[in-house]
Each structure stands twice: as structure tokens, then as C-alpha cells.
Design brief:
Rossmann fold; seven-stranded parallel β-sheet; six-stranded parallel β-sheet; about 45% helix
């Protein structure tokens, strides 16, 4: 084994909360720092995740390279940063970073290049035409730029193989979570009820995700309206970037469903572990774009029942057909919520223990990070 520290530069689109960004944080948080010298570059400005990365003593470089008017100037600046750092491995995350970071790395150094992909399907609508172009270019350059391509889900692997990504370089490494951080808490729900000044017979159903069309907050709220008419003691917790009372579109939608008193908007929360442990059910209502919904793993690790639309690898993560719902079916979601709410404590606990066990067996960050480190070593002929 080579005793020299391996220099790794992670390049990512931004450091705002999202699945890929959280996974990057999880990976660098558990990296063997005696073996790896880590830096991070954000193609845009710093986001909330940067605070946690900097606390680890990891340097972050950032400037908005995606602004069209000075792209080439900043692209050259990125090349100079690569020349200065001289990374052994450039590990890029998401399409724009894969393409821009991969090309810059080829110009600047002899670094080995790993692409990470964290989406499954092309997003619908004209707003994503530029992303579609980047994906098509990435498909072509996948034959020449990266040494390895890591996809976080089986569904993503199949999709990218179909659209022409170099399959001989592709592999699946699922996302991982810190099981020491996400775990059952008997006090969490009591604390949340106290904070919200609610009675002890309240049930909490939550959804965690940034405000974005793919998340389908409207479907969640429609399902909430259906069930709250029958069970007014159910309250709904929504959190994520843009999911707060300053979001007029969201608050107007909530008002249209007459859910004001039963909905609680928490916005972005840095430490989600306590919130997950407060819930009775965690739900995803996304209709596209998900690859490996990390929020499912985090809730399941806290012994929480989860319900999800059939997106990405949700069915593989949950491993229960009974908890998977077709997209855009609020009535079915409400029916599933009612079934879970009606369970006795023993049955509910059995679901929770089963969920925790699955995450322990498959998605512990300690085992996931070893898979990444094995491929780092492999690229540099250390194994």
C-alpha cells in the first residue's frame, strides 16, 4: 500500500441541500483522513451543506462558473485550481459537474476521473432543455472522460445504459447514511408536540424535500385533505429548502386545500435526525427525477414506516410492495396512511424494526464509503 496521501478533489454543482450533496457530505465525513487529502469545489456559490463540510476542516473552492457571460474565464480559473492542487482523483457529482469538471481535469492534470450520477430520468418540460443537452453530451463523452461512472441506484444504471452511457465503466454504489445519527428516539415526538403546542394524541405525517415540481407537494396536500377530513388529529410536517411560509405558491396551495391549521412548514433543517424520529409516517410523492431517495433511508433508520410513489429505487429501498404507490394517486396515498395509522403499537413497531434492519444491512455509510475507497485505490493501482 502506498503511504502517500491520496489527493481527491470533489466537484459538485452546488452545496445546497439535496440527495447528491448530502451523500457527498456523508462520504467526506466518514473518509479515512489519514489516507485521503480532500478538497471540494462548487460550480456555484456556497450553500448550507458547505458549513458542515468546512467544520471537518475540508477546504471549499467556489465561484459561479455556470453564468454564461464569463463561463470561459471561470473555466480557465477552474483549470488553474486543478493545476495547483494536483489531485490524484477528480470525483465529480451530477451532470454539469461531470462534464465541466471532467473536461477541466483532462486539460489540467493526469488525474483519474470518477463521475457520480444521482438522477434517473430526464425531467419533463422546456425548463430542462439545457440539462437534456448536457446529458446527451455526457453520454458521448462518457466513453472518453471518466475512468469510472458511479450511479447511486439500479434504476439510474438501467436508464443511463439505455441512453448510451459507457456501460463498461458503470457501477452501482447506493447512497449511505450514518446509523449513529439516524435512530429511534422515544422523546422526539413529545418534544415536537410540545414545540407546536399540540395534544399527545396527535399523529405526524411528514415529507422531506426541497420545493420543486418533481416533489409534487400538491399530491401530498391533496392526500392530506382526503385523510384529515376523517382524522382531524393528523398533522403534517413539511420541510426542505423553500418549504416555508415565505413561499407564496406553497402557502396558497395549502390554503386551497383548507389545511392551514394541520400543516407545519419547517423549511431547511440542518439536523434532520430528530424530526424523522418524531414522525409516525414519512412519505414521498415525487412523480419523476428521483434516483435513490435518501430521505427514505433516513426515516427507516429511525424505525419509521414509509410510503412512497414508485420512483427510482424506492421499491428496492423499502422492500415492501404494500408501501409503494403509483405516481399521482392521492387517494391511494391517503388510504395507505389510514391503514398504517390504524395499526396497533406492536404491528407498527414491527414495521419500524424491519425498516431499521434493512438500512443497517444495506445502506450503512461505513460500508458504502469502503466501496468508494476501494475504487479510489483500484484506479491508482493500490489494490
Amino acid at each position: 500500500m502506498n503511504n502517500k496521501k491520496i489527493k481527491i478533489l470533489h466537484i459538485i454543482n452546488n452545496l445546497s441541500p439535496g440527495g447528491a450533496e448530502i451523500m457527498l457530505l456523508n462520504l467526506v465525513s466518514h473518509a479515512d483522513r489519514s489516507r485521503f487529502d480532500i478538497s471540494v469545489f462548487s460550480l456555484q456559490d456556497k450553500g448550507d451543506i458547505s458549513i458542515d463540510i468546512e467544520k471537518l476542516g475540508i477546504p471549499i473552492f467556489h465561484f459561479n462558473i455556470l453564468k454564461k457571460y464569463d463561463f470561459f474565464l471561470k473555466f480557465l480559473k477552474l483549470i488553474f485550481i486543478l493545476i495547483k492542487i494536483k489531485p490524484d482523483i477528480v470525483h465529480t457529482w451530477m451532470y454539469h459537474s461531470n462534464l465541466i469538471g471532467g473536461i477541466a481535469a483532462k486539460f489540467a492534470s493526469r488525474s483519474k476521473i470518477i463521475w457520480s450520477i444521482h438522477s434517473t430520468t430526464l425531467a419533463p418540460g422546456p425548463e430542462k432543455k439545457s440539462t437534456e443537452i448536457v446529458i446527451r453530451l455526457s453520454s458521448f463523452f462518457s466513453k472518453y472522460l471518466p475512468d469510472k461512472i458511479v450511479l447511486c441506484s439500479k434504476s439510474s444504471y438501467e436508464f443511463h445504459k439505455i441512453i448510451g452511457f459507457e456501460k463498461n465503466k458503470m457501477m452501482v454504489i447506493p447512497n449511505g447514511i450514518d446509523l449513529g445519527k439516524f435512530k429511534y428516539s422515544s422523546k422526539a415526538k413529545l418534544n415536537l408536540m410540545s414545540k407546536l403546542k399540540l395534544a399527545h394524541d396527535i399523529k405526524f405525517i411528514g415529507m422531506v424535500g426541497r420545493y420543486h415540481p418533481m416533489k409534487r407537494h400538491d399530491i401530498f396536500l391533496h392526500a392530506a385533505q382526503i385523510i384529515v377530513n376523517k382524522y382531524p388529529f393528523i398533522h403534517f410536517i413539511l420541510c426542505g429548502s423553500g418549504v416555508d411560509n415565505s413561499n407564496r405558491k406553497l402557502t396558497k396551495l395549502i390554503h386551497s386545500f383548507s389545511l392551514g391549521s394541520n400543516i407545519h412548514l419547517f423549511g431547511y433543517i440542518a439536523d434532520m435526525s430528530i424530526l424523522y424520529a418524531s414522525l409516525d409516517i414519512l412519505t414521498i410523492t415525487s412523480s419523476y427525477g428521483e434516483s435513490f431517495p435518501l430521505t427514505l433511508c433516513e426515516a427507516m433508520a429511525c424505525n419509521i414506516p414509509v410510503v412512497s410513489t414508485d420512483v427510482g429505487d424506492a421499491s428496492y429501498i423499502i422492500n415492501s410492495k404494500d408501501m409503494i404507490i403509483p405516481i399521482n394517486e392521492p387517494m391511494l396515498i391517503a388510504e395507505k396512511w389510514e391503514k398504517i395509522i390504524s395499526l396497533d403499537i406492536k404491528s407498527r413497531n414491527e414495521i419500524g424494526v424491519k425498516n431499521r434492519s434493512r438500512i443497517e444491512n444495506l445502506f450503512d455509510i461505513k460500508s458504502i464509503k469502503k466501496k468508494y475507497e476501494h475504487h479510489y485505490d483500484q484506479l491508482l493501482n493500490f489494490t
